[in-house]
Fold this sequence. Notes:
The protein has helices at about 15-30, 40-50, 65-80, 105-135, 150-170; strands at about 10, 30-35, 55-60, 85-90, 135-140, 175-185, 220-225.
Amino acid sequence: xxxxxxxxxxxxxxxxxxxxxxxxxxxxxxxxxxxxxxxxxxxxxxxxxxxxxxxxxxxxxxxxxxxxxxxxxxxxxxxxxxxxxxxxxxxxxxxxxxxxxxxxxxxxxxxxxxxxxxxxxxxxxxxxxxxxxxxxxxxxxxxxxxxxxxxxxxxxxxxxxxxxxxxxxxxxxxxxxxxxxxxxxxxxxxxxxxxxxxxxxxxxxxxxxxxxxxxxxxxxxxxxxxxxxxxxxx
Length: 234
Ligand SMILES: NC(=O)c1ccc[n+]([C@@H]2O[C@H](COP(=O)([O-])OP(=O)(O)OC[C@H]3O[C@@H](n4cnc5c(N)ncnc54)[C@H](OP(=O)(O)O)[C@@H]3O)[C@@H](O)[C@H]2O)c1
């Protein structure tokens, strides 16, 4: 039996792309799911599919650039479930492509609100409960993006996520809570675009590796989902 059987997992940005793959993978592991998107209607097809397979799954909605909506969503989950065992911080946006040195401050602000501040808020509210219970897995999705001046708000937001994990994780040693980073690879999704070399499904099974870590495994590690592909000749 999977060690994740009946664990409650919250996946942000689960309506499509990487988040949908992660939700399907966690369902296969026997998790119960709280799936997030901006609108409940965006989640309906996946919720129907999962419930059809007997998976306990519910949807929550929040615009992640709006702190009040983020807190209201978290309040609802805490009221209903008391906490979650797995927090998969997947949702993020790309910034518009800009000519070098012409990026408006508003791009930085919006990307940081969604990709960094909401992610930190979710960690801040769920992490202490995991520590109190002595078990938890938090996965923060990052990116391998490098040297693209035209997308700096996005790459800087992911650098901030990396730094957050690096600075928080030493304090998690011995708590039973493991926080990790995962880069799903460059994928054909709405965010990754149609020129990406990899199908979205190739983020699996690697994207689940940091959730499936054994108790006592180190926190703060960076996982490349593409390293775990099973469809490539080695
Ligand atoms: N695709 C790639 O090549 C690639 C490469 C490296 C890292 N990543 C990372 O992988 C993660 C998933 O990316 P993806 O390619 O799967 O993206 P995607 O296909 O664009 O999906 C984004 C998800 O986030 C949600 N979302 C978007 N804007 C939101 C907002 N303002 N508030 C709340 N939710 C919002 C969307 O939900 P709704 O629109 O339904 O509300 C959707 O479920 C991100 O962290 C991304 O940075 C992706």
